[in-house]
Amino acid sequence: MNTPFTSAEAQRAVEVLASRPLVRLITEIDDNGAIPPRRLASTLPDLSTHQLRSASDTARAHGLVRIAPGAGLELTAAGMELADLYDAMARWARRHAVPAPVCEFSGRIRCVLDLLVPSLTTERADGAEAALARLRTLLIQWLADNLQVARVSEPEPVA
């Protein structure tokens, strides 16, 4: 699925997917299982209350997490696929020391997504390394299955 996105859609998708709080939330749930809402702050103490609320709201709005009765926030199928995509991006970035040999996981994700943005608006990833081209394909496939992440909402008409 190589349908290019508009520049605004590509930028929107990267802004959502590269958000450090969202990356932290998705990967924490992927690594350790569901998080009860009351335990979010103690599970992710490096994030402010506002960041936690924003990441949780964003993840729910885009169908990445759901609230499971008795368990808390858990990943949906789209959230699990995104966690797998994050892992693939981080592996590529580590292998290539991008953006640096030692870097926070979410920084690696941001860097790889920034590298991929230009290729999301064209049919092909000209000149891209094979592994990066593979990540581009995985990202495009994930975005095609989750169009709401890239969709730029139209402004509300003023009365």
Describe, in plain words, how this protein is organized in 3D.
The chain has 159 residues and is mostly helical. 58% of the residues lie in helices and 5% in strands. The chain has helices spanning 7-17, 20-32, 40-43, 49-61, 77-95, 105-120, 130-145; strands spanning 65-68, 72-75. The protein is globular and about 45 Å long. The N and C termini lie far apart (40 Å). The relative contact order is 0.18.
What's the gist of this structure?
The protein is mainly α.
Task: Supply the key terms.
159 residues; mainly alpha; two-stranded antiparallel sheet; 7 helices; globular; disordered C terminus
Low-confidence stretches: 154-159
Query: How many strands?
Result: 2
How helical, in percent, are the residues? Answer: 55-70%
Biggest beta sheet attributes: 2 strands, antiparallel
Return Rg in Å: 16 Å
Overall morphology = globular
Calculate the mean pLDDT score and round it. 89
The helix/strand order is HHHHEEHHH
Order of strands in the sheet with most strands: 1-2
Number of DSSP helices? 7
- Helices and strands: which structural class? mainly alpha
Note the beta-strand portion.
5-15%
Distance between the termini: 40 Å
